Amino acid sequence: MHAAPPLITGLSEIAAHYDGAICDVWGVLHNGREMFAPAIDAMRRFRAAHGPVVLLSNAPRPPEGVTALFDTLGIPHDFYDAVVTSGGEAREDLMRRTANGRRLKLFYLGPPRDHPLFKGLNIDLVQAEEAELVLCTGFYDDETETPDDYRDLLEHFRLRGLQFFCANPDIVVQRGDKLIYCAGAIARLYEKMGGEVIYYGKPYAPVFVAATRELHKVRAGNRPLVIGDGPETDITGANRAGIDALFIVGGIHGALVGDLSGVAKMLSESGAQARALMPALSW
User: Fold this and answer.
1) Would you say 26 and 66 are in contact if contact means Cβ atoms under 8 Å apart?
2) Which end of the chain is flanked by fewer CB atoms within 10 Å, N or C?
3) How far apart are CA 57 and CA 269, in angstroms?
4) Both 135 and 185 in a single domain?
């Protein structure tokens, strides 16, 4: 097992090595209930002194859905240059698949709040028996349900050989002081059952390419830093893209704050490597 990455007390300790930042949102900048003011201040200071900031989220909705939540949480909009989301990537793929007037019969698995993902597309939302494919943004009720609640439905999809589009690869997310299951947990179960899953978002390459492209629109550079709390999404994705990563331990793995050996073990098991780590993002 490798040693834990160095523990730093502020982003300012390493910021000068980078000319852009790709920052996770949920778990780093807020927890769904309240904003993390020191993290937002850190991104604002980085942007002023070192380079552009792109927010990269596995939110299963278009970028404007992420910034709309900012308004409800009182989060300002002066610390970032662009937003890239897994939902936005999924929507772009659906647009390609429905080009030239083709319509898709799609079974939607997720809460009503994510319906804007389909707005204006050539898509008919149908029952499971009629569907050509499945798209999942999350649980119908993520406060009470588990992936096993969907096993019978997933078996129906598997027997029909339907592709399962996952618009949020996260397994869990922090909401207040609770961990809530995400679409990735259902997708993992479908894979274990033998179904085919197409994932959008971190750790997969297209969203990191898109985020880097947004950085370059503001200022050309070649030394971005990824900041995130997900070893299997943020950190692994950064590793695959050849980008340094700062691991924020106090997000979904908050129980490991202060336990460097536990952090090292978790990173080693996931195969992820971080440039440094912090309990919570601050300057």
Assistant:
1) no
2) N
3) 23
4) yes
